[in-house]
Amino acid sequence: MYNAKAYSAASATSRLASTTIPRREPTEHDVQSEILFCGICHSDLHSVRNEWSEFMPTVYPIVPGHEIVGRVTKVGSAVTKFKPGDLAAVGCLVDSDGTCPECRAGLEQFCPNLTLTFSMPDKHLGGVTYGGYSESIVVDQRFVLRVPSNLNLAGAAPLLCAGITTYSPMRRWKVGKGKKVGVVGLGGLGHMAVKFARALGSHVVVFTTSPNKKEDALRLGADEVVMSRNADEMQKHAGSFDFILDAVSADHDINAYLNLLGRDGNLTLVGAPPKALAVSAFSLIMRNRNLSGSNIGGIAETQEMLDFCGQHNIAADVEVIPIQKVNEAYERLLKSDVKYRFSIDMASLKSE
Ligand code: NAP
Ligand code: ZN
């Protein structure tokens, strides 16, 4: 065991602050990496503030962070996939049993014995797992991913959650040429969704509450931008979408978007507002519409997504910040004021 510098929150109302956490020495299957960049996902904020207490109560202290890109510093004797000096990435998952039907289907995120990157019981050290707002991490090679060498590293980090969470449902619902695709909420997830939908050849429409994001939405790859608080603009698209990805982090009227789906259209929720959303039966019954959800993605699909990003030169648009600005970044997230993902430069932790 060794100590690593990190940022943690002591309670739902505490600010994140400098701390030291234990990390295990790499065992034979482990990869130890120095963390270079870690994205800030809105899920970090929901967890730190215990906003999902009903579904997954937070254990304190919490070290969040599950969009991790680093450089390998040490590997265990049985590690074949990585060697010191390689780039490596870690997302939301750090362990699973590897034998259950979900694992065998490549859907480790649904394994009953899953370990998430932070705030889950740590099988090696006891206590809970600690995430990427730290200087290093030690993870079984099965959960360590390869980063395409052409990608900007600060922009690659958010692919590990915002990337896979938007890529996976788009592949499942066959987003591609000839499809009209909506993206609701132009934040970290939403802006990745726009890039993927565009790269997959769809007609992309962004729904935003932020008038100042219109130009960016077009630059990111949207064909059209709708101000979602303008009922007339919304009405023009009634009944016309094949697929809508809802990436909104707060309470909102989902019926307004269901009503934009065409026959058999699908709206997938990836946004996880703490409060239940009200769904009108008629929004679904009319035109045989579908409402579904999607939870990150498995390890093989995450690697596929990273490789896709390498081929298409896709990374997140990031605002790189030092860890000392993390509390400010959280306040800005709450105001939808991020263009379009904060990525923490972990070198800033050295001065703590
Ligand atoms: P984010 O960067 O904060 O983006 C959320 C966006 O939602 C905002 O930029 C804003 O877009 C819109 N929004 C915020 N408040 C709103 C309101 N009151 N009404 C309407 N629109 C509002 O967050 P993120 O990191 O992309 O995460 C989005 C959600 O996905 C979070 O709930 C997160 O926990 C969840 N998530 C789920 C998964 C999964 O596996 N399903 C994985 C990662 C994250 P505009 O300014 O364009 O309106
Ligand atoms: Zn996330």
Notes on the protein architecture:
There is one protein chain. This protein is of the alpha/beta class and 352 residues long. The protein folds into 2 domains: 207 residues, Quinone Oxidoreductase, Chain A, domain 1 (Alpha-Beta Complex), CATH 3.90.180.10; 132 residues, Rossmann fold. Helix content is 23%, strand content 26%. It has 11 helices and 16 strands. Strands 3, 4, 5, 8, 15 and 16 form a 6-stranded mixed β-sheet that branches. Strand 9, helix 5 and strand 10 form a beta-alpha-beta unit. Helix 4 crosses helix 5. The radius of gyration is 20 Å and the shape is globular. The model has no long low-confidence stretch (mean pLDDT 98). The structure holds NADP nicotinamide-adenine-dinucleotide phosphate and zinc ion. Zinc ion binds next to loops.
Count of helical stretches = 11
**What is the level 1 CATH name of the largest domain?**
Alpha Beta
Overall 3D geometry?
A: globular
What is the makeup of the main sheet?
Answer: 6 strands, mixed
List cofactors, ions and other ligands. NADP nicotinamide-adenine-dinucleotide phosphate, zinc ion
Low-confidence stretches: none
Say how many strands there are: 16
Estimated helix fraction:
10-25%
| Cα separation of the termini | 21 Å
Structural class: alpha/beta
| CATH structural fold name of the largest domain | Quinone Oxidoreductase, Chain A, domain 1
Number of domains: 2
Sketch the topology as an H/E string, one letter per element. EEEHEEEHEEHHEHEHEHEHEHEHEHE
CATH architecture of the largest domain: Alpha-Beta Complex
Strand proportion: 25-35%
Global Rg: 20 Å
The CATH H-level superfamily of the largest domain is Medium-chain alcohol dehydrogenases, catalytic domain
Integer average pLDDT: 98
